[in-house]
Design goal:
Its cofactor is Mg(2+). InterPro entries: ACT-like_dom_sf (IPR045865), ACT_dom (IPR002912), HD/PDEase_dom (IPR003607), HD_domain (IPR006674), NT_sf (IPR043519), PII_UdlTrfase/GS_AdlTrfase (IPR013546), UTase/UR (IPR010043). GO terms for molecular function: [protein-PII] uridylyltransferase activity; phosphoric diester hydrolase activity. This protein has 38 helices and 18 strands. It is of the alpha+beta class and about 950 residues long. It has a four-stranded mixed sheet, with helices on both faces. Strands 5-6-7-8 form a four-stranded mixed sheet. A hairpin with a 2-residue loop joins strand 16 and strand 17. Helix 9 runs antiparallel to helix 10.
Length: about 950
């Protein structure tokens, strides 16, 4: 990182006296020509403003702090605006003998009033007058505003009397807050002083509780709009949780309850300890630096730290790669640690408010309401008591006497469903050093922690409290290593620790039966799981190997063993947890990238899992892991695939330990297919030929009604020229299910995929079947660009797509329509390395081809076309995606119906697929000018 620069005096950047002298000279040179005077003045002020901003930018890039930069930019703006005021009132509209009504004061309000500005921040000004506006005052204000707009400022302004300011402040908390921060720039001093006195006496006095309640409701609403978690991986630096506005809210409250003359005096109050003041300034400094870099990089008031900007801001702030940790992830981890610290500051400040203003509700500072002193309720746990519906402690000495109390505190809070009192939370954060190696191995501490983890009432809330206080990472160091860690890709919406705690909370919800509708299978098997501790430990530790040596899974297994052994877990459980962590991605890989109807796939998975208990544990972990990644990642299609794999594997285990797994699956399939054929023929005798021609695996994939519909569609295809298609919205799969019956031929799948892509469809899953008579039945699961089932809002879109698929099935050309970029623009930030894996061992009858690269419309068609051009027919296709990266797997056979065994042909196929993926990467959307791509994380 660049060496920190010392602050520079403002006069070395903008000399106010020299600036005014130049303006006066320009006015005298063009005396009598108002237009020329104005033009020269604007030019001089623009030069001063540009010079000031460029010096601030250069200093920032060379190590100046964020607060210093914000203050320097504010100081430069002050000099320009006050010089303009002087020019206006001396050379343009001079009042030689001003009347009482022509007095005027110019005040900075809002953020500008705090004397901190980002490069492209709005400036808020208050023109304060004593009485009704006079023509002279109106002329001054109008002249200044037009000049400020010409200088490029975005100005928020008001012209009011003191009386109006007081009245409006009582009615509107936004106005009240802006005047709270008012700072006189120039003009009548007495007028500004009168406003401050009347504002304190008539608005602030006796309304502290009302103001706090309003500001914290405003904060809650703002965070709900920006994203409720402070660990969203594209955070809003200004408005997001843990961002600048949270710090501003604390300052407003402190300043309102303890009025000061200057914003920086807030830090001198007794309400902040020296430790908290340092943390406050550290957070302000870092966030202001990030925000300034964002503005300078984009040339506009950009507040969101988007993926494409993160690598550039990391570079500008001096972060570099370190080992396997790329610069962007190191920078973002620092960002989230600061956001976490802001949360701790909020709680600490709340504790100080409690000493002066008591509250009744256990909702923390966010419910700062009038009320009497909360009642103290004794508990049976020495040193702890209930304080107004929250858990509190007798004092920090209970942790010093017995550090295990740092763990007991959270267990008691969970048992009694209590929030932590801010005093208790603050005491915990100040005593983290007491959690030593001895405490981590203390039997009582480990028992309390495991009970909370595996049997807690509200595990997500309580573990989040532990994490926010720093206890969880201190007690479980393996978890501490991933606190605030982000992965630079679009797949994950949260940091690793937040994702993990959400996954643990989801398992708790499943155990309580709260997710029956969303995850019926996982909820139904929870009572059958014998070892809940192993389940919750594995979920808590499943991502602790990220960034570790040997890969995520191996490193995770090592860290899981280390953590479990320290917790005193018995050997068999240690090995089970380590196995679950090492294999936590296996079930999703098999379900989404392999053909579950292939007996070899199920048998291979069963050999890995070995027994029903592991199968149950793995299913629950897989469901929670996928769902906790972020909004929209889990869908019904993934659930359906997991259920099919689970049921098929469970059938293998029912066959007995000594039996042949593949033979078991085949027998199960044959029996199910025979029963389904009988049912189908009984319902539709005309379907007898169709039923006999279709493979056994087909019948296990669909409901009896689906089988009837498919048979009818196949007959329709034969009547109307060789192809027929029908679509419907499948709510369970969260996709449109589109079935195409057509005569099989090489390239059919590619033509169908092109038709779907050209009409704005995104294929999330596909099943491919071919009858012994050479008729193909392809089933596509399709979403629109928003992730909703295609046609759910517009049924005509489904009919239009079905018509296009029928035409494609007959071999007619497809009209390719231009697609909007939409989400593709976000992927521009990532450099994605294409990969191709060709596997002849995964299936008995087909070669499995897995291709991975940048996701885009038409990629599936391009890959399918390449396979067809290499003389291969697609037996099944498995489409998966991880944000910006697509991972598509195909089961393919040669024209002779066998595997692709020829080494030269395998190499040629791999080369062709990589070429298609590389062309795709070369055609990726461009980043913003001046920005470079950074390597996308492949961690899941």
């Amino acid at each position: 990182m660049p060496r920190r620069l010392r602050p520079t005096p403002l006069e070395h950047v903008v000399d106010g006296h020299a600036l005014r002298a130049r303006l006066s000279a320009a006015a005298l040179d063009a005396i009598g020509d108002e237009a020329a005077q104005r033009a020269r003045a604007i030019d001089i002020l623009k030069q001063a403003l540009f010079r000031g901003r460029m010096i601030a930018k250069e200093r920032l890039e060379n190590g100046a702090g964020g607060l210093e930069t914000a203050r320097l930019l504010s100081g430069v703006t002050d000099e320009v605006i006050t010089a303009l005021y002087d020019f206006t009132t001396v050379h343009v509209f001079r009042a030689r003998n001003p009347t009482e009504g022509e007095r005027l004061a110019l005040l900075a309000v809002g953020g500008y009033g705090r004397a901190t500005l980002a490069p492209f921040s709005d400036i808020d000004l208050l023109f304060l007058r004593p009485y009704k506006q006079t023509p002279h005052v109106e002329s001054v204000i109008e002249y200044m505003l037009y000049a400020l707009w010409d200088l490029g400022f975005k100005v928020g302004h008001a012209s009011r009397t003191i009386e109006e300011c007081v009245r409006l402040s009582k009615e509107d908390f936004t106005i009240r807050t802006s005047i709270l921060e008012a700072r006189r720039l120039t003009g009548d001093e007495r007028l500004a002083a009168d406003l401050k006195k009347r504002f304190r006496d008539e608005v602030m006095k006796g309304t502290g509780q009302q103001f706090v309640a309003a500001k914290l409701k405003e904060r809650d609403d703002r965070q709900a709009r920006a994203g409720a978690s402070r660990y969203m991986v594209e955070p809003n630096v200004k408005e997001g949780k843990g961002g600048l506005r949270d710090l501003h809210t604390l300052m407003w409250i402190a300043e309102y309850l303890h009025p000061v003359d200057a914003p920086e005096d807030v830090f001198k109050m007794e309400v902040f300890s020296g430790r908290e003041t340092k943390a406050f300034i550290r957070a302000f400094d870092f966030l202001h630096a990030v925000r300034a870099h964002l503005h300078f990089t984009t040339g506009r008031p950009e507040e969101r730290l988007t993926f494409d900007l993160q690598p550039e801001i990391a570079r500008r702030m001096g972060y570099g790669d370190r080992g396997d940790a790329p610069a962007v992830e190191r920078f973002m981890r620092r960002y989230f640690l600061i956001a976490k610290e802001v949360g701790a500051l909020t709680r600490a400040f709340s504790a100080k408010l409690e000493a002066e203003h008591f509250k009744n509700e256990p909702k923390g500072i966010s419910r700062f309401l009038p009320g009497g002193k909360p009642k103290r309720k004794a508990l049976d746990a020495p040193g702890f008591y209930e304080d107004g519906g929250r858990l509190n402690i007798d004092g920090p000495e209970i942790f010093e006497t017995d550090p295990v109390n740092l763990i007991r505190l959270f267990k008691i809070a969970d048992e009694r469903d209590l929030d932590l009192h801010p005093d208790a939370f603050t005491a915990v954060t100040r005593n983290l050093a007491l959690i030593t190696s001895k405490v981590r191995r203390d039997p009582e501490a480990t028992r309390a922690f495991l009970d909370l983890l595996a049997r807690g009432k509200r595990s997500y809330r309580t573990l989040t409290l532990m994490n926010d206080a720093g206890v969880l990472g201190r007690f479980i160091p393996e978890f501490g290593r991933v606190v605030a860690q982000m992965q630079f890709n679009m797949y994950h919406s949260y940091t690793v620790d937040e994702h993990t705690l959400r996954a643990v909370g989801l398992i708790g919800d499943m155990a309580a039966g709260r997710l029956q509708d969303d995850h019926p299978l996982a909820v139904s098997i929870m009572p059958l799981i014998e070892d809940r501790e192993a389940l919750f430990l594995a979920m808590l530790l499943h991502d602790t190997g990220k960034g570790g040596v040997g890969g995520q899974e191996k490193a995770g297994a090592r860290s899981a063993r280390s953590a479990c052994e320290r917790l005193g877990v018995e050997r068999s459980k240690v090995e089970l947890v380590a196995w679950l962590v090492e294999n936590h991605l296996v079930m999703s890989d098999f379900a989404q990238k392999r053909d579950v109807s292939d007996p070899g796939t199920v048998a291979a998975f069963a050999r890995i899992v070995e027994n029903p208990e592991r199968l149950r544990l793995l299913l629950v972990i897989t469901v929670a892991d996928i769902r906790a990644v972020g909004p929209g990642v889990w869908n019904g299609w993934k659930g359906q695939l997991l259920r099919e794999l689970y049921n098929a594997t469970e059938a293998v285990f029912r066959g007995g330990r000594g039996s042949d797994a593949t033979a078991n699956v085949q027998r199960h399939q044959e029996a199910a297919a025979a029963a389904a054929r009988e049912t189908l023929i009984a319902a539709d005798p005309a379907a007898k030929g169709w039923a006999a021609a279709m493979e056994d695996a087909y019948f296990g994939a669909f409901s009896p009604q689906d089988l009837l519909d498919h048979a009818a569609l196949a007959r329709r295809a034969a009547i109307q020229g060789g192809a027929a298609a029908e679509g419907k919205v499948n709510p369970g799969a969260n996709a449109a299910e589109i079935v195409v019956a057509a005569k099989d031929r090489r390239g059919l799948f590619a033509d169908l995929a092109l038709a779907i892509s050209s009409l704005g469809g995104n294929v999330v899953g596909a099943r491919v079947f071919t009858s012994r008579q050479g008729q193909a039945l392809d089933v596509f699961y399709v979403q629109d660009v928003t992730g909703a089932p295609l046609g759910c809002e517009n049924p005509r879109a489904l009919r239009r797509l079905a018509d296009a698929l029928e035409a494609a099935g007959r071999g007619e050309g497809v009209n390719v329509e231009a697609r909007r970029g939409g989400e593709l623009a976000r992927t521009a930030a990532f450099a994605i390395a294409p990969t191709v894996v060709i596997d002849n061992e995964a299936s008995h009858e087909a070669t499995v081809v897995e291709a991975s690269g940048r996701d885009r419309p038409g990629l599936l068609q391009a890959l399918a076309r390449t396979l067809a051009d290499n003389g291969l027919s697609i037996q099944s296709a498995h489409i998966d995606g991880y944000g910006e990266r697509a991972v598509d797997a195909f089961y393919v056979q040669t024209a002779e119906g066998g595997k692709l065994a020829d080494g030269r042909k395998v190499s040629a196929l791999k080369s062709d697929l990589l070429s298609a993926l590389e062309q795709n990467e070369a055609g990726a959307p461009s980043t913003r000018p001046g920005l470079k791509r950074a390597r996308a994380s492949v961690a899941r």
